[in-house]
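Intended use. Records such as the LacI family DNA-binding transcriptional regulator entry shown here are meant for training and evaluating sequence-to-structure methods. They are not intended to support clinical decisions.
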Amino acid sequence: MATISDVAREAQVSVATVSRVLNKQDSVKKATADRVYAAIEKLKFEPNILARNFRRSESRVILIIAPNITNPYYSHILTGIGDTANELGYSALIFNTANSEEREKEGMEMLKKRRADGAILLARNQGSQWLEEYAENYPVVQCSEYDPDVPFPHVSIDNYKAVREVMAYLFALGHERIATISSKNRYISTDLRMKAYKDALGEEGLPVEENLVAYAGLDYSFRSGKEAAEKLLAQENRPTAIFCISDTIALGAIAAAMEKGIRVPEDLTVIGFDDVEDTMMFHPYITTVGQPCYELGKNAMRMLYDRINGQLDPQHEMVLKHKFIIRESAGRRKQDD
């Protein structure tokens, strides 16, 4: 097996020069670097990356802090992160918190222990000032959810704008008794979607009726969405449309309607959010807001790479485009409603 000394002899340079080439330092002339690369290829030299990283205090591992990896929304984000990390020479470690802040703190301690070079947070709660210590000392990026008061770069979509589009579409279909199924969490997306819902009703001169606001679980589960929809649909003057803050919740709402003999979309319009694959598993296909999940993950990893290399401002933000997708679960309000 060839050694770094063998490469140096073959390229007629010093061992230190080979080391600088391997570490991609700019101090080596191109012609010299080309000779070193030619020698590496000829001798089939494989550098001891683990040892080199240890000397440079690098792990070449990035940490992904996720709240619930069973949620289908995260699958394409994780794929985007993983594919891009691999392209950039990193491995990705997923730390599942099960929506526990204590578990999240435990995961972030891996940065202090040098077990990871940086972290991507997938479900950042607002009001997390304890993270400021990490913001000052370690490369961290927020993906999808973010806390605007903590100076981490973030990538997301415009949640407020997306829901305003949903509400405008529902008004155009003639709906006025529009319910929403939200969640009692501390995500900025939840707050922005609720604000857009209330603002849209207000601008149409419609009241925000508390009995038309229901809450699913923190995990956005099918069961909690179904239970929330059952409460809405049990009302004598039930809503004609329900906007759900996730597709999984929307699936639960459709199931609740079907069990009550309420047809979707003939009797009830249901709209989701995210565009996970489950939205087209059975009819009616769900009208939803599509998030570019793979691109969210891809850009989060590239931003983290830039942070690791000191090339990205801590206040940097990126907003990706969403897409409102009209399918089968939305219809015009029945005139006799």
